[in-house]
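Why this split exists: single-chain examples teach little about how molecules sit against one another. For that reason, every record in the complexes split bundles all components of an assembly together and asks for one structure covering all of them. Below is a record exactly as it appears in the raw files.
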Amino acid sequence: MKATAIANANIALIKYWGKRDKDLILPYNSSISMTCDGLWSKTTVEFGNYDEDTIIINDEELKKDEKDVLGHLHRIKKMAGITKNTKVVSESNFPVAAGLASSASGLAALTLAATSAAGLKLNEKELSMLSRQGSGSASRSIHGGFVEWLKGAEDDGSDSYAKQLADKKYWPDFRMIACIVSEAKKATSSRAGMAQTVSTSPYYDGWLKSIDKDLQHMRKGIHNKDFTLVGSTAEHNALKMHATMMTTKPAIIYWALATIEIMHAVMYWREQGLESYFTMDAGPQVKILCLEKDVSKITKNLSELGGVKKTIICKPGDGAQLTKEHLF
Amino acid sequence: MKATAIANANIALIKYWGKRDKDLILPYNSSISMTCDGLWSKTTVEFGNYDEDTIIINDEELKKDEKDVLGHLHRIKKMAGITKNTKVVSESNFPVAAGLASSASGLAALTLAATSAAGLKLNEKELSMLSRQGSGSASRSIHGGFVEWLKGAEDDGSDSYAKQLADKKYWPDFRMIACIVSEAKKATSSRAGMAQTVSTSPYYDGWLKSIDKDLQHMRKGIHNKDFTLVGSTAEHNALKMHATMMTTKPAIIYWALATIEIMHAVMYWREQGLESYFTMDAGPQVKILCLEKDVSKITKNLSELGGVKKTIICKPGDGAQLTKEHLF
């Protein structure tokens, strides 16, 4: 009745932005990501004779009003017919809720650990679908390497899950440099941000109409290991997502000064022949896409910018896995 | 054969973005602006026995490859049947081509001075239409106060001109604080930026579909002197314009670090009850909309931000006028 799982965060190259079903977490568009070996969450779940369900994330007990994680735990307990209370301890090696996909790694690790502790034997497709219901992007963290979350068409979500496009060994010199510019918790959650976008942005229609082309370019770019196509498509797609947010009422502007600083720097380096691209999620952090040969030059350049507090260099990583090293 | 005109720049509250006819400068959408008393261009035109056409802007002779101003001068000479060469001297009290609408004031002043020197008697509608062909936004600088440039529907541009919504005395406590964050000439001209937007942004369609609502809100806001409606509509519209640019291929990102710094500051002040809104044109400068009673508090707050080099406080200003004070 106890299991521990480790899952990597994933950073979307083509973003998930907007839900067609808020309860089942079904997206309006498919998305593609890279699972990052450097950004992990580790979660131990035990069902036992506890007085109540307790969830501790990074040494802090989850408040009862933070329903998402608790709701997901209850979903799994219900599936497995478990009535005992639960102790969950989770830790991540990066700031939570600051636009570094902590919910993806956290909910994927929780899903795998909890179903395993409960004795459920789920395959990867089932794990992905179940993780999706905890946090949409968690569906992608079940797999390693490059991953596509299929939006699906069914109302019950049975065809909305992630599949692997290529494993972590496929493109070993692909790198993503996560630039931490702020460790503050963001003012608007991804969930609230995307709901506001769908209901108020005059550009959300343009987002949906142009997303298939982005997805095609990204699949082709990954298939051909065409770094220019992957990078330019990812950057364009990220700018499109942020552009939809800026046009909501009220506007959501996740960018900090350092976000713009890094964006301009990346564009300038590219003009100078140092090929790199940026992407940002629902937060101020910038993730730079590059190839291994340019990492040292780019990190040196980054160290000269004022706003970069920390960099984490990621390569394509593993999908969610069970581990014997329990957290309690 | 010599005349001098002074014209104020105007800052759009609802932006002009995208041309349906590049030669006649006919826009896809109507726009609304405030003519700013603090940002002027003064231009003296003389037709005489000069060896060639010479145009001096802010003490610098215009290069022969900068066709816009010269082309406009030739248009007016042709209209008036003038064959003599021309000397033009123009000066502005603010940085040229950095997103402070220098082409609007410059081309409006040139149009009025040149037609006057040529002995043409044009009414304001004709002056606006003619100025429009030099630079679209110049059509609005012919008038003072709050101005709408009607997009028109005719192919020949005969119904595309600016009209005054309210004169400069109508809303005397309305203010616009132009925050200069960079005096560098921008990398992408407005003209190139909007052409690239129309041809490559997946959001340009959403811009056009949502513009009528913005125009309605702005007309209503000005009519009712509803500062909240004017400000929030202007801010939303500016963000929409910048959002279209970010999604072009390649992306156009006019914002500097200080641009974002001021945007966040304005949003924060508003949360604290200090009502103000921002708007940005095709450049990094931010223009803050506020009421006179809050100017001193806002300028004090601005002085505490790192990136603001200079502020210029504008109230609704006059339209283009002839003056006896020649520049040579």
